[in-house]
Amino acid sequence: MPIDPGVLDVAVVGAGLGGLYAAYRLSASSRRFRVFESAPDVGGTWFYNRYPGARCDVDSLQYSYSFSEDLQQEWVWSERFAGQPEILDYIRHVASRFDLYRHIQFDTRVTSVEWDDRAAHWVITTDQGDTVAAKWVITAVGCLSTPKRPEIDGLESFTGESYYTNSWPHEEPDFVGKRVGVIGTGSSGIQSIPVIAGSAAEVTVYQRTPAYTMPAMNRPLEAAEVAAHKAHYPRHRAQERTSRSGTLVTGHSDSILAASDDEIHRRFEECWHAGSFGCALVSFADIITDREANDRLVAFVRDKVHTIVADKAVASALASWEYPFGSRRVCLDTDYYATFNRPHVHLVDVKKDPIAEVTPRGVRTRSGEREHDVIVYATGFDAFTGTLFRLGIRGRSGVRLEDAWAQGPRTYLGIQSSGFPNLFIVVGPQSPSLVVNVVRAIEQHVDWIMDALDHADAGGITTMEAAPAAETEWVSHVADVGYATLYPVADSYMTNVNVPGKPRVFMPYLGGFGSYGDRISRVAADGYPGFVLSR
Ligand code: NA7
């Protein structure tokens, strides 16, 4: 049943890791708040992405909340990289342990968020018929939460079973004896293909852009190593917070161009076996800034693919990258390349043999039709802005967020956008968000927002809004930092081009997690320069 909480101090949108932490912080204050969540439970992306093999690619002991020493001591992770069910259990546990469920209105999609200038508050409506006013809005909707439907003709005509990795059914589909087509080879495809191949009669992988992927080296965690980590948890968390990536990965500051072949090979081998693509990205200072340096790593990974995959043509197609290592999100896999040695697994390179349509019986590429009983779409997300735009946000003078951001996101510090007062974005575009450990990034943003709310309350401030000049400067700073690297070279959701019609803009902030944290803390300590505070 919809509830009517009257005028709230804070409305939070989303009950994934971000919204839940906001709820935790708000529940310790006297503020009236409510969390709106479209799903029937907490978890966000970890609620929906329950495809076979779904797994985090940041170490469990790091990809977890740091706000409670009791919580981090109590919770027992079973694997180095937790699978989706375990992460969802953890998020549910946190919601119960800190009594957060009672603040969340589930099965409720926010349909509009409109600024009322006279009353100086937001008016939020939902698909359950709620109309709620709130002084502050915190969007914690995730960067990868609105599924992207592939622009392929005939999707509806297929008479077999169709599944999307990003909205996987709760009743596990059975692939035994079935001919399965998988479209998409990002992280979701790369994680699910080996598992699907474990039971299906035949698997055909439709690859458009080959990903770079390295072995995850996932394994059960041993009690002794967990105990050793837990003994120094505060120190590890402090290191994560000041690091470039929000993790414990440390790198090298020397140039590859001055290194010997032996040393280059030694470091790359070490990273290949480390179960960390971050390790490879920082194996030399210039891997992600210099194409020649990056090419050395690409050559190393190409050799690995050719060593693992027996069929030369298949290996060549899997390693036919035309973009630098790291400029699309690198994947961590379990047996991805080796899966193509199995006789019932086939690769179709749809760059060379494009998909024409989905037919009632399968997939037709230019070379002909392949029949499938099941098609799995691992085609990704309308990332970063997709979910924000779906909220129906209208700021001052009724301006829609998607119009204000027609040429790309415009934020100050990735936290607020001019014309949208009192609205905060947790891990959205122009913040470190998806290029770092997102749980650390969530805590960093939510803590900053809570300090801003305290500051506003203490000073009788009614509105807080990014100043246009500070915003313009931040937008160009994000671009300058991004374009000084190789990250923006590739087309992907990071450059905002995986959804047709969107402008090509590099989305995350690459200035480093720790330095970004210092910067936003300084802004808070200095009384929020760059924000307009009105009484
Ligand atoms: P990604 O990484 O965006 O991957 C989507 C994949 O789907 C990618 O290979 C796309 O190829 C492919 N795709 C999308 N549309 C099509 C069509 N129409 N035809 C063929 N292939 C298509 O999403 P994921 O869910 O795998 O991973 C998202 C993040 O989750 C990941 O980076 C981790 O951070 C966790 P394209 O690149 O468009 O050529």
TrEMBL record:
Keyword Electron transport: no
Family: Belongs to the FAD-binding monooxygenase family.
Record has Aminoacyl-tRNA synthetase as a keyword: no
Signal peptide: none
SUPFAM superfamilies xrefs: FAD/NAD(P)-binding domain
InterPro entries according to UniProt: FAD-binding_Monooxygenases, FAD/NAD-bd_sf
UniProt KW keywords: FAD, Flavoprotein, Monooxygenase, NADP, Oxidoreductase
Native organism taxonomy: Bacteria, Bacillati, Actinomycetota, Actinomycetes, Micrococcales
A matching Pfam family: Pyr_redox_3
Cofactor: FAD
The name this protein goes by in its record: NAD(P)/FAD-dependent oxidoreductase
